Amino acid sequence: MTHRPLDEAARTVRPHPVEPLWTQPPPPDQVDPAVLSALLRRHGWQRRGGAAGRYGRWTPPGPGGSGTSLLVPESRAFPDSDDLLGEALLALSRSGSPSARDVLTGLAVPSDEIHWWRDVPTGPSGAAPWVVEDQLRTAARRMLLAGALATRARAGYYGARHRGSAAASLENILVGAAPGGRTLTAFVPVPTGRPLAVRLHQALYAVREAIDYQRATGGMDAFDAAVAAGVSHELTEALVALVRGSEGARIAVEWAPSATVPEGGATPVEPVEFSPGDLPALRAAGARYLREEPSVPVSITGAVVRLRRSGPRGEGSVRMRVIAGAEVPHVRMTLDEESYRIAGHAHLVGLPVRVHGRLESRGGFRRLTGASGVAPVRVDDAERDRLMKSIQENSTDADFFGEACDGD
Question: Going from the N-terminus, what domains does the chain have, and what CATH number goes with each?
């Protein structure tokens, strides 16, 4: 474990996209009254009258909502529209209702919303075990990651491929949970996250249809076709995690009211439902994707970060940090004596190497088999120095050359 020196400045943390706007409600002149009304309706607020064609009176969800109301103009056609909007936004910012925060989040960051509902047994007074919320959040994150992976490529099983860039794309997604751990909402910003929301929407419907087909006919062919819609081992495993231990679950994708509905996106959106009876089909599909995803021929360029063999001669294993040629961070391979020597010399002089082979799905596409054509790649002095510094910062000589040592 490494520690930052006491006199070193703390790392600057990227601000959360909502933080600059969360201390106060959005300015009224930046809020579309129709969008505000749509968000209130989406999050359970009820319209209870108001002057027709001028404003609506909205009350929050729940038994205590009758004592609070908002007056929201229907348009900016009247002189007091900004005043009514300002009062409504201020009331939302002071409300303790989770739905009020969700509405303000939707205004601050125009987002498509992904909703999860998970039916779990209740305890005394409607309480649920604390692990319920953790299970829901874990399953939801895995589902978002599966959707992000599907925007980068179509595959039945991704393993380590594209995982880094897919995980990075989730950084700007906001999450709002309701008390009890039974519901969760993810706010996916439209400018950066719309492809993820669309792909997940399509994939969920495709996996529902594939399950229905399997339960009706016993065949798994529909799962093979569903890969084109974004269904994968990762998505089926996320659904298993969501449904397992529950009485059922639902997922819905709702489009941002401030943006147009994407092509192929239904409106209104009906939730996709899954039950414990779907688990056998989901598990079978996940195993099928894992088993049948083919190996991939690649030509990889990377920096050697570890070499190990059991004696002073013969073949040895090499770990390489991938620079180009495959969407994985590292690969391992076994090289014959001559190729192992070339890889060792390239490491010593700070040069990357190029190698041909096949990425095997077993182990998550982290192993290259049939490695051949190992050769150093010429780089300019600046890049060479950077590679050397990176390698030296992360390892010691003993890590690189494990002659006569056991294991990998």
Answer: 19-108 (no CATH), 111-292 (no CATH), 296-400 (2.40.50.590)
